[in-house]
Amino acid sequence: MARTVWDxxxxxxxxxxxxxxxxxxxxxxxxxxxLKIFFxxxxxxxxxHWLRTVGEPFMHYEWTLWLIxxxxxxxxxxxxxxxxxxxxxxxxxxPSKYVHKKKRAGYATRTMRWGGVILGLFIVWHILDLTTxxxxxxxxxxxxxxxxxxxxxxxxxxxxxxxxAMLALGLHIRHGFWSAAQTLGAGSRTRxxxxxxxxxxxxxxxxxxxxxxxxxxxxxxxx
Length: 223
What we know:
The protein is mainly alpha-helical. The chain is 73% helix and 0% strand. It is built from nine helices and no strands. Helix 2 packs across helix 4 (63-93), helix 2 (9-34) crosses helix 9 and helix 8 runs antiparallel to helix 9 (192-218). The chain is globular.
């Protein structure tokens, strides 16, 4: 039964929608946490430490954080796999040639695939930069996330990578949220306009919220 659902186009779209919403909830929480950097070193570092102690003493140190990471990895893999397979299925279903060129969809729709690739590469860089410190620009120090963030956004390439990725994220959310709503049956003639407005607002708030951190470092507000 599960195999039959997964093999269907509707099943893959449902997996994309649900996994996308899981990641969206994480992004909202992550953005709110990131903005704590504007309240100073101790506040931000305390927040980072709290993430590792959530659920204690029932959960051991970092267990909750690792549980969240596992859920996110599953969501990302499920989202990327279903997106790739749907894309291949769509290509195979097209006629070999069109008599007339068809008008393409909107800009956000056209950039969804490349946006997904950009975000996938960004996630790898982001982890290697601020989680493991492997490609960190300065002297990465475990337990000092505030300073590590400032180090990253004190470089032109750190800012460029992050801002480009967040712009791609905004476009991805703008189209993806509305598509997920349609897939899960939330759309209708009366609700479509409201759903598109929610998608636009979410995309704008998340983009501005995430970009605020590198801008804060560049302008000296965060130092």
